[in-house]
Design brief:
Blueprint: H1 38-106, H2 112-132, E1 135-138, E2 150-156, E3 163-170, E4 172-175, E5 178-181, E6 183-189
Parallel strand pairs: 2-6
Antiparallel strand pairs: 1-4, 3-6, 4-5
Helix pairs in contact: 1-2
C-alpha cells in the first residue's frame, strides 16, 4: 500500500490552547508554565461569585414577577367571567319580574285570554333576551336527519330512503353557532 500524501506538503499541528489558559503560558511558546498569581485567582473567584449572586437575584426577581403576573391574570379572568354574566342576568331579571306580575294576577278572577296573552308576551321577551345573547332554536321539523343537530329518540318506517325528522319532541338550541342541546326528534325513513 502506498502513501498518497505528498512528502513535500507541510504538516500542520493544531493545539487547543483553551486547556492551557489557566496554566499560564502555552506549551511551545518558550516560556515555562508557572503558577498563576494567587491574587488573580481570588479576584477571579470573587468576581465569579458576585456574578453568580447577581444572576441568582435576577432570576428570583423574574420568578416573583412571573408568579405575580400569573396570579393577576387569573384574578382578572375570573372577574371577566363573572362580569360577562351580568348583562344576561339583567335581561332575565326583567322577564322574571314580568312572570311575578303574571302569577300575582293569575290568582285574581281574570280573563283567561288576557292571562294567556300576558304569558305569551313574557315568553316572547324571554326569547328576545336569549336571542340577543346568541341563542337560536334549531329548526328540525321536516329537515333531513343530522346527528350533529338532532337526537333520534324514536324511529319509524322501514324504507331505504334518507332519514327525515318527522316530529320534534324537544327543541334543540345553538349558542353562537355551537350546539348546546340537540333537538329530540322522531326519525322516519321513506
Amino acid at each position: 500500500m502506498t502513501d498518497e500524501r505528498d512528502d513535500d506538503a507541510p504538516v500542520i499541528k493544531v493545539t487547543d490552547k483553551r486547556r492551557f489558559a489557566d496554566i499560564g503560558a502555552a506549551p511551545g511558546s518558550g516560556e515555562e508554565p508557572g503558577p498563576a498569581p494567587a491574587d488573580a485567582d481570588t479576584r477571579d473567584a470573587g468576581e465569579a461569585e458576585r456574578e453568580v449572586d447577581e444572576y441568582r437575584a435576577h432570576l428570583q426577581r423574574l420568578q416573583a414577577e412571573f408568579d405575580n403576573y400569573r396570579k393577576r391574570v387569573l384574578r382578572e379572568q375570573t372577574t371577566a367571567v363573572e362580569m360577562a354574566a351580568e348583562p344576561v342576568m339583567r335581561r332575565l331579571l326583567e322577564v322574571l319580574d314580568d312572570f311575578d306580575l303574571a302569577l300575582l294576577h293569575a290568582t285574581d278572577d281574570v280573563d283567561q285570554d288576557r292571562l294567556l296573552k300576558g304569558v305569551e308576551l313574557v315568553y316572547a321577551k324571554l326569547l328576545d333576551a336569549l336571542g340577543a345573547e346568541g341563542l337560536e332554536r334549531i329548526e328540525a321539523a321536516g329537515q333531513p336527519f343530522d346527528p350533529s343537530l338532532h337526537e333520534a329518540l324514536m324511529q319509524s318506517g322501514e324504507g331505504d330512503g334518507e332519514p327525515r325528522v318527522a316530529e320534534v319532541f324537544r327543541p334543540g338550541y345553538t349558542l353562537r353557532g355551537r350546539v348546546i342541546r340537540p333537538a329530540g326528534v322522531r326519525v322516519e325513513r321513506e
